[in-house]
Amino acid sequence: xxxxxxxxxxxxxxxxxxxxxxxxxxxxxxxxxxxxxxxxxxxxxxxxxxxxxxxxxxxxxxxxxxxxxxxxxxxxxxxxxxxxxxxxxxxxxxxxxxxxxxxxxxxxxxxxxxxxxxxxxxxxxxxxxxxxxxxxxxxxxxxxxxxxxxxxxxxxxxxxxxxxxxxxxxxxxxxxxxxxxxxxxxxxxxxxxxxxxxxxxxxxxxxxxxxxxxxxxxxxxxxxxxxxxxxxxxx
Length: 235
Description:
Layout: E1 6-7, H1 11-25, E2 35-38, E3 45-53, E4 59-69, E5 74-75, H2 76-94, H3 105-118, H4 130-134, E6 142-149, E7 154-159, H5 164-170, E8 177-185, E9 195-196, E10 202-204, H6 206-211, E11 217-222, E12 225-228
Parallel strand pairs: 2-4, 7-9
Antiparallel strand pairs: 1-5, 3-4, 6-7, 6-8, 7-10, 8-11, 11-12
């Protein structure tokens, strides 16, 4: 078996893969569409589009864009399956078919057919595995809330930079949160967690968490301004 190829999606690669699968799996019926890369953690791929309600409650879809994540190095076969997943959505929408839901009867039938015919592994959804999370070692600034919960466990929340002032107060309103500390850190360990726009705490192992706070710097909020304190946190 050849070694697994690990890569990051690029626009030329996505365009070439789209063209190849269009001919192979869709009989060339899909029109080329704009491709955009994203570094969001909330999805690996998606079709963006506009829709307009028609008579009798149906929808007309237009202005399609294929968006693929370039956040992580991933196996090439997984990137191919992500693109195929979105191509199924694109086929359904561009043909103005009205499926029973986002991944409804038509989508599932086409997905099963493509998987069986072409030995693919297209799925309804994909969650980042631990191995995939470990591949994201880029350093980026995080605004981190470390929460002590009423049952003694530890939780964290990474705040979206545009929402940190609101979240600073909102996280205290979560019933299970007893107290909070805020830090800024660039440790890649925290890349695996989404940036929150609403207050939500993720449980973490307290010992493991402390290992990744060595270089974190505490934050202080005065009025509507947030300041970085020093020195770095010491265990």
